[in-house]
Amino acid sequence: xxxxxxxxxxxxxxxxxxxxxxxxxxxxxxxxxxxxxxxxxxxxxxxxxxxxxxxxxxxxxxxxxxxxxxxxxxxxxxxxxxxxxxxxxxxxxxxxxxxxxxxxxxxxxxxxxxxxxxxxxxxxxxxxxxxxxxxxxxxxxxxxxxxxxxxxxxxxxxxxxxxxxxxxxxxxxxxxxxxxxxxxxxxxxxxxxxxxxxxxxxxxxxxxxxxxxxxxxxxxxxxxxxxxxxxxxxxxxxxxxxxxxxxxxxxxxx
Amino acid sequence: xxxxxxxxxxxxxxxxxxxxxxxxxxxxxxxxxxxxxxxxxxxxxxxxxxxxxxxxxxxxxxxxxxxxxxxxxxxxxxxxxxxxxxxxxxxxxxxxxxxxxxxxxxxxxxxxxxxxxxxxxxxxxxxxxxxxxxxxxxxxxxxxxxxxxxxxxxxxxxxxxxxxxxxxxxxxxxxxxxxxxxxxxxxxxxxxxxxxxxxxxxxxxxxxxxxxxxxxxxxxxxxxxxxxxxxxxxxxxxxxxxxxxxxxxxxxxxxxxxxxxxxxxxxxxxxxxxxxxxxxxxxxxxxxxxxxxxxxxxxxxxxxxxxxxxxxxxxxxxxxxxxxxxxxxxxxxxxxxxxxxxxxxxxxxxxxxxxxxxxxxxxxxxxxxxxxxxxxxxxxxxxxxxxxxxxxxxxxxxxxxxxxxxxxxxxxxxxxxxxxxxxxxxxxxxxxxxxxxxxxxxxxxxxxxxxxxxxxxxxxxxxx
Lengths: 254, 464
Description:
The structure holds 2 protein chains of 2 kinds.
Chain A: H1 2-21, H2 39-51, E1 66-70, H3 72-80, E2 87-90, E3 103-106, E4 110-113, H4 114-120, E5 125-129, H5 139-156, E6 161-165, H6 172-177, H7 183-199, E7 203-205, H8 208-211, H9 232-253
Parallel strand pairs in A: 1-2, 1-5, 5-6, 6-7
Antiparallel strand pairs in A: 3-4
Chain B: H1 6-22, H2 28-43, H3 49-70, H4 75-106, H5 122-137, H6 147-155, H7 157-160, H8 168-176, H9 182-216, H10 223-255, H11 272-278, H12 281-295, H13 302-319, H14 324-350, H15 352-371, H16 375-385, H17 400-419, H18 422-430, H19 434-452
Helix pairs in contact in B: 1-2, 2-6, 3-4, 3-5, 3-6, 4-5, 6-8, 9-10, 9-17, 9-19, 10-15, 10-17, 12-13, 13-14, 14-15
């Protein structure tokens, strides 16, 4: 018994020494450098904050012939923004690479593909918000796929005004920990979308101005899971979309 | 490493049990200790010094036990020293961070930025260590003479991380001599698979509804959805913990130990008093044996009984975590238990239907206090559960409860079913038949598939 205790004690001592020796002398900082968010977003923020000072004529905007295409954030708009008249073609996890193939349940229509929906209904405005679920793929292929989608929609709804919505940021905490879904990648994607919008007569809307923390990240207190907004903010977003749409209508008719 | 993970099932278990079953009996404790310490090390890779703390705890308990017997004059000193070591490390690692950040709010100029990470299992092994010291002091047991045996007792991976809280008395015979029977090993494996299924196929999916409601934000959910959500949490926490305890018991059997049962269909209780004899049984037993009874229990009149219950339930609350909502939870339970003891308990025990209805209301409501760590958010959630105070029943998403019911109804119904005795009765009838093992294979396969799909969530009780 005494010998066994000695052996056990010596083993403990050895394990403790090995374990303590494995501790590094310098603790790594463990934090990634906060990546400076590039110019496009700040320019967009300036432009939009200037434009929001003018009074929008939201009463002129009807969403009766409007379609929203997108992923979980668009699902949130559908459920909580109060845009009752609009149609929504969206699912949680919607991808650019399957949006033209999948069949989605659209209220008042049934389960349809995008092509069927566009053939059956005439829309004045189509808002698209996609891309974040595809961030793991090659960035150029995402943009090419987006371009393809825009061309498909244009072909089927030539009279509709198309709006591209920027992908929303994730919180700082998530952005620092996630190699794929981080704000640097989201901003790069959004910058490419803005460029595409500028060259193709699409209107680019960036709602990050409503929900960011001033550092280019989604505000921590606006999300429970570092990614999705609390439902109460979708109403604010819906109103903002209405205001921005009215503003752009006013600019076009001016 | 959690039990419900692919590395544990496909790497640790085969390697460990391969060695364990192959070595002669006299080396089994050594293999078990090495395996358990490796298991612990994997769980504390970011803080390997916690393994040293653990080894130190084992050593302190062992020495105090020996010295209590060898130097009876100083028994009390050794007992107090051992308990203080356990409680000090528990307070430092579990509560100090919370205490200092609260100081930061009241003391101007004081900043507390350190992150104190909780060593895994500390809440469980500290309590086991304290139970050992007290039992040696009261001479309920003789102290362990073999450091290896005591180390195996405290570190045994089956119950190290999340219980059940095992007293030395319960396993002391098996520590020195256990009979390895293949029938027991098979039973253990079956229990393990059933626990795995409860956790991965029931607790994890149903828990997603509660998470979803948190993501939406309590202020935006309708009343029916709020009730569905807290029901989902009620099921998640039960099947999560019951599943994990079953896995622990199953692994214990595979090692040759008979670990105590931790759950006995608690949701069939008719009073909260009965509930806490059926829920986390080993924790309740620990508080009864080592806090309530030494304080005098119910033997010194009504006032002292109420006081003793208050101490036990406040401690039970804070054992679960450092946070005001845990204290509130403990105090609410105390009030309910006192009311039952002196007033309403006998009514519900006699009128069982009323008792079940009473529990169907009280259980989810008390879990809501436990689940929501922000007191103001708790208030918001209660206004959704009881909309007459504010806000109205419906959300801006008018039929949110229809959407989520259609997504989660299989799991909610399964939760109701598995809260009853029916599945266990069915299983006992089929136990000796071939279909039982086919069923286990299906459960195992489905669980592994879900784990592989990344649907594994960390065990809820790990933060304790």
